[in-house]
Design brief:
single chain, about 200 residues, Rossmann fold, 6 helices, 10 strands, binds S-adenosylmethionine, SAM-dependent_MTases_sf, DUF938 domain-containing protein, DUF938
Length: about 200
């Protein structure tokens, strides 16, 4: 089976893993939202054997990651789960101790981002972490010209897409019981934001 491929995932998977290995240091199941090609799921499951990785994606897209998962024969990665964050699909998920999502907040509409936070907050146990990777702005300011251009191209493609602002996400998290605790600078003007469930 031909495998879908993202060069960005190849570039960012190790810097993200370096952080996740410190953050998700206890055994448990980690829900990934919007797994895409599955390159992250496979890399993280391979290098974090104390975890069970639960890939998921929108029901229209969740099979995309199957080829990468099948090729690796890992025992700590579950079949991908069809999860539209803005639906009641959450009810069928296995118990999860942590959550992770990459490059989804600027693709989803703001209503979907709200639904993602609400779903994660309901799913996580107390002290569970939600790690969100991607480009973000700060008080309306982009962190690079390339991010500013990326935001313009997203908005031109679809009005509901766009780079999210840290303060909006911080407020949203707080309204669902998720407290923003860490903000890591990663390569290529991306960040890893970490929320802890109260
Ligand atoms: C830019 S891709 C990122 C894929 C992968 N995480 C990565 O970093 O390459 C955005 C992903 O968000 C997913 N997505 C968009 N809307 C969604 C929704 N409402 N519920 C769940 N996933 C969604 C898409 O299907 C897609 O896989």
């Amino acid at each position: 089976m031909d495998k879908p491929f993202s060069q960005a995932c190849e570039n960012n998977k190790q810097p993200i893993l370096d952080r996740l290995s410190e953050l998700f240091d206890q055994p448990g199941t980690i829900l990934e939202i919007g797994s895409g090609t599955g390159q992250h799921a496979v890399h993280f499951a391979q290098h974090l054997p104390h975890l069970t990785w639960q890939p998921s994606d929108h029901p229209h897209n969740y099979r995309l990651c199957l080829a990468w998962i099948r090729d690796t024969y890992l025992t700590n990665i579950n079949p991908p789960y069809p999860l539209d964050v803005a639906s009641d699909d959450w009810a069928g998920l296995p118990a999860t101790q942590g959550a992770y999502s990459a490059n989804t907040a600027h693709i989803m509409s703001w209503k979907e981002v709200e639904a993602m936070f609400a779903g994660v907050a309901q799913t996580l146990p107390s002290d569970g972490l939600f790690c969100l990777y991607g480009p973000f702005s700060y008080s309306g300011r982009h962190t690079s010209d390339s991010n500013r251009r990326f935001n313009q191209s997203l908005r031109a493609q679809a009005a509901h897409m766009g780079i999210r602002d840290l303060e909006d996400l911080r407020r949203l998290g707080a309204s669902t019981g998720l407290v923003l605790t860490q903000d890591f600078d990663l390569p290529a003007n991306n960040r890893l934001l970490v929320w802890r469930k109260q």
